[in-house]
Write a structure and sequence with these properties.
29% strand; elongated; single chain; six-stranded parallel sheet
Length: 178
């Protein structure tokens, strides 16, 4: 391999991507596209389930691999051998989950006999365990407040900037000359 071969350099305007103010957005877009391609490729396995906006239900007697749900919820009555990831959706399990569970802005409910063998990570949601339900490894729960604080700070900064620029200057009445 020759020097510089296999290195991707993105040029915007006159400089490289490292110096560009749009570099982060471009790279984030590329990673989202790559991630979507990976999810689609893995979903074609037949055992994995990926959904956008439609609830995923694993019925009793079914065995699936990984489950990914965007803007929807996952309900598990069968066996999940892989990981469960939800974005803006809840996870309800009545049977064991062999992998990890990650829920962003959603709750996780573990009914009797349900378990998570891997890690549990909840961003902006809550965990409810009933009966003998348990989490096998690490359990991390970030409450909604953690996400509201940066939003409140950004909102306060925007309000302060708009208040500075929208400040009204007093109007003085000048009487006519007689």
């Amino acid at each position: 391999m020759e020097p510089g071969e296999g290195v991707l350099r993105i040029r915007l305007g006159g400089g490289t991507c490292v110096r560009s103010k749009y570099c982060f957005l471009m790279l984030a877009f590329v990673f989202v596209l790559l991630g979507a391609g990976v999810c689609t490729a893995r979903a074609q396995n037949g055992q994995d389930r990926v959904s956008f906006g439609n609830r995923i239900v694993v019925n009793e007697g079914e065995t699936v691999g990984d489950v990914v749900c965007f803007l929807c919820s996952v309900e598990s009555h069968g066996r999940i051998q892989g990981d469960v990831v939800t974005f803006l959706g809840n996870v309800k399990a009545t049977s064991p989950i062999r992998g990890d569970v990650v829920s962003f802005a959603g709750n996780v409910v573990l009914e009797d006999e349900a378990s998570i063998d891997g890690d549990l990570v909840i961003f902006g949601g809550d965990l409810r365990k009933n009966g003998s339900a348990h989490v096998g490894q690490d359990q991390v729960i970030f409450p909604v407040v953690i996400f509201l604080i940066p939003i409140a700070i950004i909102g306060a900064i925007i309000w302060a900037i708009s208040a500075i620029f929208r400040r009204r200057t007093p109007t003085f009445y000048i009487p006519p000359v007689r």
